[in-house]
Amino acid sequence: MAPHRHPTRAPLAATAPSPHGAGLMGLALGALGVVFGDIGTSPLYAVQTVFAIDGGIVKPTPADVYGVISLVFWSITAVVSGKYVLLVLRADNDGEGGVMALAALARRTVRPGGRRFALVMVLGVVGASLFYGDSVITPAISVMSAIEGLSVSAPELARVEVPLGATIIAALFVVQRYGTSIVGRFFGPVMVVWFGVLALLGVAQIAGDPAILQSLLPHHAVLFVLDHPFIAFVAMGAVVLAITGAEALYADMGHFGRAPIRRAWFGLVFPALTLNYLGQGALILRRPSSISNPFYLLAPAWAQLPLVVLATAATIIASQAVISGAYSVSRQAERLGYLPKLTIRHTSQHEGGQIYAPAINWTLCAGVLLLLLTFQTSTKLATAYGLAVTGTFLLTTTLVLIHAESAWGWSRAKLLAVGVPLAALEVTYFSANLTKVAHGGWLPLLIAVAVVTIMLTWQRGRVLVTERRTTMEGPLDQFVWNLEGQHVSVVPGTAVFLHPDPATAPLALRENVAYNHVIHEHVFIVRTVSENVPHVLGPERHTWEVLPSPLGTITSVTLRFGFQDEQNVPRALAAAKDDGLGIEPAEANYFLSRITLQRGPEPGLATWRKRLFIGLAHNAANPSQYFSLPQDRTVVMGAQVTL
Predict the structure, then answer these.
(1) Dihedral sign of CA atoms 250, 254, 255, 258 in order
(2) Nearest to 184, CA basis, from 353, 28, 408, 14
(3) List of E strands, 239-291
């Protein structure tokens, strides 16, 4: 009997989520509340840190001030405006951003099996790992840099800064479960006020010394580098603090979309940051002693305490940018096979990219609090900051250039024209931050090494378990034709077996036949596939094939999901039913094959990596919850695999 196949579908396509209901301006406002908090609070500590390096090797002289402000302005212009907002946001994986999404996008466009095919995902894993290091440091340094304004206006309050910072950070992670949509609507208006205040503070100082506008000319940055090459090199390690948050901007693209982010950046954020940095430069020229805290000293004494309150709110929002980005990057890594299954909660009915990952949230919370209590001041935290950010910059540049050549058809001349200046700038940032390794820079590297180890161990272990599980399961067609001679009874009802390989027999199905000697009248073997695109919509979401069987009917079904889609199997089967699949998902019983892992002598992974893989597997999301299966109609049947 020839198998019945589902009618041929169009090639797989991914569709980016469109803004439903919320207009472009509404999304731009939400983006202000989530995406730009990190880079928007850099004025709190970036310039101060430059002049505090190595006991003050950068002096508050006109030449040094013009040079530093010029370096800050052109760094923001080149890296944030030029690279990320205009170039990298073009490389959206159908609406989704972040280094893992970029790696998956680049892998789709390079030649399969070539050196680049394997390289891009390794770069993506390393980039994601560095981003996690940034996600731990950013909330701590942002919140502390704001709260330390208390001691500027009231020195006796210095002793409450650390406890207050820890309380604020804990509260921020608690509210994450309400979702970035609600958080963004609340934070967006606060950030409009924040950027407005940044601009006003800057304009007031510029009016008193308009000569600072000269620093917008790039030759001041060049002269600073030529006159003091070593000092300028060291200063670049702190100048980069002005552009931290650029990678979070890209990682958060899936939450709001490219157009709202661009509009908010060029319409408000970039002008406000420029004016504030110019204002800080003008203040330092007029009052060199203000290098102790040039941001808070921009304001008159009566306004400093209210400014602390506003800055604290803004730094809470700054933390939101990397937290939301960490959720997105984590789910991308999971769907691409580099992390175990995570419990993901969708927090918006309209925007598929707005999610909450409890395990990631509380892991970050613990890390941030530990970091804050260890370093305690923003100055000490600044020594650990920058290395993870600049490393991610380099990896993102490499991946986007690979994609530009393979997908956009860029010529070698165009690649060099864009890539060489960016690489020169970012290599300088990275090299300057290497000097911080012994003074706290080891921390993001340690986090990155740990995450890389976890991701590569999970990916390798998953491959080995799949190979050994496949051997245990045996060919599906052979199992089906052997049913007739096994005294198996056909019982009424529908059974859905979730199974990753359509060519082999599900272990739960084998166990049901071997021990219960029954098979359901209608059997559906369902495979879920995570595609390297954010969303799979339309009829290509599902295909099926009715297999020849001597008993009952057995249908092999493939459900396709993007890495931004919720893998709700009953809902996906209901959609397939609407397209002609003969199933009643609401009446079906669902069967899962639970694998018990046992460490053994088999090759493939070192012993310590086997222990790590088994530990990760034990803490993976519950499959029945992950696939949204009904608890009262789900049966779990086990088998043991030796790793």
Answers:
(1) positive
(2) 28
(3) none
Q: Find the mean pLDDT for residues 157-164.
A: 80
Question: What pLDDT does residue 135 have?
Answer: 80
Provide mean pLDDT across the span 370-395.
Answer: 80
Which residue, among 572, 475, 564, has the nearest Cα to 527 in the 3D structure?
572
Summary mean pLDDT of the chain: 82
- Identify whether 554 is part of a domain: yes
Q: Does residue 239 carry a pLDDT above 60?
A: yes
Cα–Cα distance measured from residue 505 to residue 519, given in angstroms and rounded to the nearest whole number: 13
Q: Same domain, yes or no, for 556 and 433?
A: no
Strands (E) located in 271-332: none
| 25 band by pLDDT with thresholds 50, 70 and 90 | low
- Give pTM, 2 decimals: 0.74
Question: Based on the domain organization, do 348 and 483 belong to the same domain?
Answer: no
Are residues 618 and 478 located together in one domain of the fold?
A: yes
For residue 322, what are its two tokens? Answer: 């990397």
Asked if the model's pLDDT at residue 263 lies above 50, the reply is yes
Residue 8: inside a domain: no
Kindly state whether residue 461 falls inside one of the protein's structural domains: no
The number of domains in the chain is 2
Same domain, 591 and 479: yes
Write the pLDDT tens digit of every residue in 111-130.
776 777 778 888 888 888 88
Does 166 lie in the same domain as 301? yes
Dmax (CA) for the chain in angstroms is: 95
Which CATH number is 111's domain given? Answer: 1.20.1740.10
Q: Which two tokens stand for residue 639?
A: 């088998």
In a domain, 278, yes or no: yes
pLDDT at residue 257, rounded to an integer: 73
Same domain, 404 and 526: no
Cα 255-257-262 angle, rounded to 5 deg: 125
Same domain, 186 and 239: yes
Is the distance from CB of 459 to CB of 340 less than 8 angstroms?
no
Average pLDDT score over residue span 493-515: 87
The span from the CA of 267 to the CA of 261, in Å, is 10
State yes or no: pLDDT of 16 exceeds 50: no
Domain boundary pick from 440, 457, 476: 440
Q: Which of 98-102, 184-188, 298-302 has the highest mean pLDDT?
A: 298-302
pLDDT for the residue 10: 36
Residue 159: pLDDT above 50?
A: yes
Last residue of a domain, one of 423, 440, 457: 440
Range of the domain at 497: 466-642
Half-sphere exposure of 633 (CA within 13 A, CB side): 15
CB count in 10 Å sphere of residue 9: 15
Do residues 430 and 483 both lie within one domain? Answer: no
Residue/partner pairs of 73-77 with CB below 8 Å, 24 or more apart:
73/215, 73/216, 73/274, 73/277, 73/278, 74/218, 74/221, 75/239, 75/240, 75/242, 75/243, 75/425, 76/242, 76/243, 76/270, 76/273, 76/274
CA distance 401 to 609: 34
In a 10 Å sphere around its CB, with 0-12 CB exposed, 13-18 middle and 19+ buried, how is residue 377 labelled? Answer: middle
- From the list 442, 418, 427, the residue with the least C-alpha distance to 393 is 427
